[in-house]
Amino acid sequence: MLCFILLHAVASKPISKGYPSGYLMAILTTKKASAIKPGSAALPHGGVVGLWLFPYETPGHGQWKIRYTSPTTGKRRAKSLGAFPEIGIAEAGRLGQSIRDAVDAGIDPLDVSLSPKNEPTPVIDPAAIPTVAEAVLAVHQAKLPGWKNAKHAAQWISSLQTYALPMIGGLPLPAVTAQDIADVLHPIWRDKHETASRVRQRLSEIFGWAMAHRFISQNPVDVVGHLLPRQSARPEHFPAMDWRILPAWVAKYLASAPPTECTRPALLFLILTGSRSGEVRGAQSQEIDWRRGVWHLSAERMKAQRAHQVPLSTQALALLRGRLGLHESLLFPSPRGIIPCDMVLTSFLRRVRAPSTTAGRVATAHGFRSTLRDWCSVHGVRHDIAERLLAHEIGSAVEVAYHREPLLDERRDVLQNWADYVLSEVK
Known about the structure:
CATH class of the largest domain: Mainly Alpha
CATH architecture of the largest domain: Orthogonal Bundle
CATH topology of the largest domain: hpI Integrase, Chain A
Number of domains: 3
Helix content: 40-55%
Strand content: 5-15%
Number of strands: 7
Shape: elongated
Radius of gyration: 27 Å
Structural class: alpha+beta
Distance between the termini: 76 Å
């Protein structure tokens, strides 16, 4: 019955139906919708009563929701209609008007099946219901021909493989709850705003696909916002460990790692070099100048897309020499012989409750760069040298152009003193 009503609405009724006589409202434009920002007020569609665009955490992205009074219970209800810009203004209007027509006919869209008239809801063999990992692969393959950018296609599935699948990949689609989605997003919700928003949007696509194939009846991503803390408009700093407690912490948690382990040696090398997690996890033996003790990172491996050289302390070099032979090229391979995922270091720090200077937060891998920077400030390290240790640009574009000297010897001295300090309590 509902399907007939929905189809009839699209074919024969104007989107503006449902407004009181003489009530006029301008239809939301794509330009205005694309300008929606996190934390801003929801935007009315303008063509359908109760249809609004609610902002996501990513600028220019939002969620279509229609509010209505249930004709069966008299209670106010809301139904999600999908994400913008994937669902445009015209399509949202058609979907919203279909809901309005159903309500006018005495049907609550949240209470009934979307099966065609006089056709029973098909019974799906539980064995035929895919897992989340299988659904991700299916959706990725379906979307692949439409992507012109190969890099985006790779990033789309990689983000889900990194953050979602380790936690929920093995679950059948109907078993996934909003709490499961929240558990996926929570570790990156504050520290990686953009990444979290992309993962959330892509998971919404996966479960939207599952709804279309009748594997599930509701999208758990639609309500996950109620289980997550509000993101601040200003990005927070990564929680960092106080440099004064670092030697004792390293001695307790990192010094005793066996040679074949990946996580703790990688984290110790990250601390000794002040490098980013991705740079360390992807480190390869061919990047090391063993004679000069320098780690050469290509522009493609750096956040700023500029080649970078890291002078290595004697301790960092010794650590790397102990990693040789574990893999044909990778210095910190996972047990499966691939680059470890981004969550490896984070999970370890959470597991041991690594203390930070941020109340209620554990230290993050990226935060150790701040730990090094604070130590440099206290110990009188020149500003330009400290910034180069972290591969930061120094000053204006003109200053950068003229200040090309890598200062390897000066940076090596600092990192050697830093390594001596970090490992000072290791017996």
